[in-house]
Amino acid sequence: MTAELPPTFCENFHNEKQVRKVKYENLGKTAMRVSTLSFGASPLGNVYRTTDDKESKQVVHRALKQGINLIDTAPWYGNGRSESTLGMILEGVPRKAFYLNTKVCRYEPTFGKMFDFSAERTMRSVDESLRRLKLDYIDVIQIHDMEFAPSLDVVINETLPALQKMKDAGKVRHIGITGYPMENFRYVIEKSPVKIDSVLTYCHGSMNDDTLADHMQFFKDNDIGVVNGSILSMGLLTNRGPPAWHPATDDIKALCKSAAQYCQNEDVDISRLASDFSFTFPGVDTTLIGTASAKNLESNLSVYLEGLTEKEKNVSDAVMEKFFKPLKRKDWDGVELQKYREAMKEGRYNDTL
């Protein structure tokens, strides 16, 4: 048990004994002392299934009282539903008790209305999010999937300066960027006219793709906080397997399926191994878990707080050696972007990913 209590601790709200079990790190060079396990609110937008608002409230409050103090959401998650649901759930919770991160630039399911990186829409989006969340400020405002911008120079010259205006107005406290291609982070950070405080990277700090490690020193050298998302690689590292739309190559899908089956044969759940792998990923400030299920939250907390059994550790080592370390091409960079660009070029504005 650690003696540390984070600045978000509220005596009449939190369970002090539970909070002291959680580890905290500064998000980059910000004053945000974030729990190394954070709450991803995309499921609250009915992204994966229809959720129950009552259970969602129980899950969020359980996470917060446990000491998880960072919540990540976006307008994209259910076309504003995730933010609106959080606005309802967080009523009555001390604002001091949590950090709230959301995003701009990605909005609706159809290609024609999916992205807008313009300054006007970006600033309007911040105001819309504040209304839905019923908050006075956002802790980190992030550009959502910046690779889908007409060019990264639009992000640098238009979107980021718009966010700086929101920061100057006191509506946001920090600025972050998100995306899938890792090399884009370096380009934007080096050329940005405003201070970038954090990156949210996904599917690169996981068992099947650990290439986040190759970029970690650059982030640290530039005082950038690192948020790690999609630790189960959007379903690849589960017994159920990925959804039909998953952009991974057939080779990667087959390999992950074989790894999951290997674990099942050993009476081990690959999701627990994958979670532990990401929870202990070197250099990461906080790792997102997304759930609207009380059962799934408890399962994640179990791995986070207690780690793996000796048998699970042995199986995890075997899976890495047998399946994932030999894997040469680990990503699916460009697959979704190419589909989007082609649809927009051909005028198929009502298509979706």
Description:
It is built from 13 helices and ten strands. By secondary structure, the chain is α/β, with parallel strands linked by helices. The N and C termini lie far apart (45 Å).
Keywords:
two-stranded antiparallel ribbon; single chain; alpha/beta; 10 strands; eight-stranded parallel β-barrel
Distance between the termini: 45 Å
Shape: globular
Question: Cα-atom Rg, whole angstroms?
Answer: 19 Å
Count every helix, treating DSSP H or I runs of 4 or more residues as helices.
13
Order of strands in the sheet with most strands: 3-4-5-6-7-8-9-10
Q: Indicate the proportion of strand residues.
A: 5-15%
Residue windows where pLDDT falls under 50 for at least 5 positions = none
Largest sheet: 8 strands, parallel, barrel
Tally the beta strands. Answer: 10
Topology:
Elements: H1 16-19, E1 24-26, E2 33-35, E3 37-40, H2 53-66, E4 70-72, H3 81-89, E5 99-104, H4 111-114, H5 119-133, E6 138-143, H6 152-168, E7 172-179, H7 182-191, E8 198-202, H8 216-221, E9 225-229, H9 250-265, H10 270-279, E10 286-290, H11 294-306, H12 310-324, H13 335-345
Parallel strand pairs: 3-4, 3-10, 4-5, 5-6, 6-7, 7-8, 8-9, 9-10
Antiparallel strand pairs: 1-2
